[in-house]
Amino acid sequence: MMPSNPEPMTADDLERFRAYLNVLARSQVGPALRDRLDVSGVVQQTLLEAFRELSVDPRGRTREEAAAWLRAILGHNLADGLRRLSTRKRDVRRESPIGAGLDESSSRLAACLADDEPSPSRKLMRHERMLAVARALDMLPENQRRAVEMHHLQGLTLAEIAEAIGTTRPAVAGLLHRGLKALRANLDED
């Protein structure tokens, strides 16, 4: 017996991925470029392109397939945005693989929510938790959100975060502590 195809995605289904895509995009754009590249604009463009593609090809996708599809579109849009910012001649040695970075950040987020039992219902629950964490991250104050994302999604040390945001390691530890506490509170509300 063949498994039934998933229902076609709608604009509302796509909108549920906005916070997730924002988290991934911010994790790929360094602090020096955030003032020059509108990350939320890149996410908006990603969702617009996905919506246009859905109107042409409305086939159903599982949540995992949809997330991978949206990450690929986001990766292309981020690469295009960063390329437009570059005024120097293209040097392949300077380019970083954005798609690989997006997959790594997504994997780190999923690892935080890992479950030993990969049943379909567990996968669905894990996916829903991942989207909830992304929404909760978006609700944090900017400095706490950045510290949490840099540490838990990018794998940076306290010293690296302190250098990147121009503060001390104890201040970063405080941001992480308050950020995780607020994140838990946001998740409890959700």
What is the mean predicted local confidence, pLDDT?
A: 78
How far the N terminus sits from the C terminus, by CA atoms, comes to 37 Å
Envelope shape: globular
Low-confidence region ranges? 88-95
Bin the helical content. Answer: over 70%
What's the helix count?
Answer: 10
Task: Give a nutshell description of this structure.
By secondary structure, the chain is mainly α. The chain has 2 domains: 11-84 and 97-138, no CATH class; 142-190, Winged helix-like DNA-binding domain superfamily/Winged helix DNA-binding domain (Arc Repressor Mutant, subunit A, Orthogonal Bundle).
List the helices and strands and how they pair.
Elements: H1 11-15, H2 18-28, H3 31-34, H4 39-56, H5 63-85, H6 98-112, H7 120-138, H8 142-153, H9 158-165, H10 169-189
Helix pairs in contact: 2-4, 2-5, 2-6, 2-7, 2-8, 4-5, 5-6, 7-10, 8-10, 9-10
Explain the overall architecture.
With 190 residues, the protein is mainly α. The protein has two domains: 11-84 and 97-138, no CATH class; 142-190, Arc Repressor Mutant, subunit A (Orthogonal Bundle). Helices cover 72% and strands 0% of the residues. The protein has ten helices and no strands. It has helices spanning 11-15, 18-28, 31-34, 39-56, 63-85, 98-112, 120-138, 142-153, 158-165, 169-189. The chain is globular, with a radius of gyration of 18 Å. It starts with 10 loop residues before the first helix and ends with a helix. 26% of the residues are buried.
